[in-house]
Every structure is written in structure tokens, then in C-alpha cells.
Amino acid sequence: MSYTVRQRTHEIGIRMALGAERLDVLKLIVRQGMILALTGVVAGLIAAFVLTHVMSSALYGVGVGLLNHPFAKQFTRRCCRNTAP
Fold first, then answer.
1. Is 1 helix (H, G, I), strand (E, B) or coil?
2. What is the DSSP annotation of 11-75?
3. Cβ–Cβ under 8 Å, residues 62 and 55
4. CA–CA separation, 61 vs 38, rounded Å?
5. pLDDT at residue 82, rounded to an integer
6. pLDDT category, 83, cuts 50, 70, 90?
7. What are phi and psi of 69, to 5 degrees?
8. What is the pLDDT of residues 58-79, one digit of tens each?
9. What pLDDT score was predicted for residue 2?
10. Distance CA 59, CA 38 (A)
11. Residue 32, C-beta contacts closer than 8 angstroms, at least 6 positions apart
12. What percent of the chain has pLDDT over 90?
């Protein structure tokens, strides 16, 4: 985040000079950080599920027991229900 803000110092200065409030600039920076963080979380979860299936198929006698757990099924249903249009 520090690197990104440092790169955008001139842009932030211009926005402030044109009348942007400090809160508006802060929202801009926080929004960019949240998008970056959420992208990383989603990519990590996808990679974890894919690697879990790959490893369970590569190792003899190892199943994907966590995905069959009732809590995991309920959590998945709630997440899918909340994101549906």
C-alpha cells in the first residue's frame, strides 16, 4: 500500500488542489487496498480448494473430509445464496 500511495502522490496532490476532501482521498486509498486484499483472499481460497483436490487424488487413502463436513456445506450454501443476484 505504501508503494502504491507513493506512486500516486502527484495524483493525490492534484485531487486535493481541485477540492477533494481528505476523507475522499482516504476512501480512494482504502478502497484500492481492500480490492487488493479481497483479490488475494479469493485467489488463495481457490488455490487452496484446487490443491486440496489435487493432493487428495495424488495421495492414497486421503480424502477431502473437510469439504464433506456439515459446517462447510452450510457455509458454502450461505455464501452462494448471499452472492446470487
1. coil
2. HHHHHHHTT--HHHHHHHHHHHHHHHHHHHHHHHHHHHHHHHHHHHHHSTT---TGGGSHHHHHH
3. yes
4. 34
5. 62
6. low
7. -70, 140
8. 776 666 665 566 677 777 777 7
9. 84
10. 31
11. 1, 4
12. 45
Distance CA 64, CA 53 (A): 7
Are 38 and 31 contacting, i.e. CB atoms less than 8 angstroms apart? no
Residues in Cβ contact with 29 at an 8 Å cutoff, skipping those fewer than 6 apart: 1, 4, 5
Q: What does the alpha-carbon distance between residue 19 and residue 21 come to, in Å, rounded to a whole number?
A: 6
Q: Which three cell numbers stand for residue 20?
A: 477533494
pTM reported for the whole predicted model:
0.59
Does the pLDDT value for residue 40 go beyond 90?
yes
Cα 25 from Cα 14, distance rounded (Å): 11
pLDDT band at residue 46 under the 50/70/90 scheme: very high
